[in-house]
Amino acid sequence: MYIEFLGTGTSQGVPVVACDCKVCQSENLKDKRLRSSLSVRVDGLNLLIDAGPDFRQQMLRVGQKRLDAILLTHEHTDHIFGLDDIRAFNWVQGHPTDIYAEERVQKVLRRVFDYVFEEVKYPGIPQMNLHPVENAPFSIQSIRIIPIRGFHHRLPVFGYRIGSLAYLTDINSVPDEEKQKLNDLDVLVVNALRMEKHISHFNLDEALQLIAEVKPKRAYLTHISHLMGLHADVETLLPENVHLAYDGLSLEL
């Protein structure tokens, strides 16, 4: 399995528009963060977790030529608003893109992208095959996917486990029964928004507490805001097996 962090930033990205803080003005490329998304290549399949407003830029940057499916964690703008650009893959591959999301998220897609689902379709619109996700394992061809329920304040969201990788973003709590799905991980990716506590995201301490509890071999923090601090400074505060992810970071599991 090969994974690449296409984006590691929060909903505003980093730098934030009109912000003069030291993080937003940093020249370190690891402090430049597009909206969060992860590419997963496994057994010949190219999967993507979330497709936010930077989707087009991310696809061009990595030179992606094929996309087999997109897994959506939830319906917020920074996780779905790039879906219009799947049309390029539709044209190249000659078929709709498979989108996996729970029913509530699908309802939002049908509203936001209503032109995709019109009975009489405008030529050239993106094509989506929507597949329901419930809190039970499912497969995309030969790949087994295990949804992991978490909560984004009061909003239920899904993380996903694929083999020895688990990806959790936009959460501030995980029920105990769901944590059982995080046993024996090689890599855990989990959101850590900032140092201070937040109403709907783990802060750094809370993310580290989850990591210490489930004990993955390695952990990477994502969905990071400019309020976290400089990448180089925060790295010095982390346990040996925990790192801030950054855009373009790739790992082979």
Q: Could you explain the architecture of this structure?
A:
Helix content is 19%, strand content 28%. With 253 residues, it is an alpha/beta fold. The protein has one domain (2-136, 143-252): Ribonuclease Z/Hydroxyacylglutathione hydrolase-like (Metallo-beta-lactamase, Chain A), CATH 3.60.15. The chain has a 7-stranded mixed sheet. Strands 7-8-9-10-11-12-13 form a 7-stranded mixed sheet. β12 (218-222), α7 and β13 (242-244) form a beta-alpha-beta unit. The chain is globular and about 55 Å long. The protein starts with a strand and ends with a strand. The model has no long low-confidence stretch (mean pLDDT 98).
Tell me the helix content. Answer: 10-25%
What is the number of domains? 1
What class, by secondary structure content?
Answer: alpha/beta
CATH class descriptor: Alpha Beta
Distinctive features:
RibonucZ/Hydroxyglut_hydro, Metallo-B-lactamas, seven-stranded mixed sheet, Phosphoribosyl 1,2-cyclic phosphate phosphodiesterase, 7 helices, 253 residues, single chain, alpha/beta
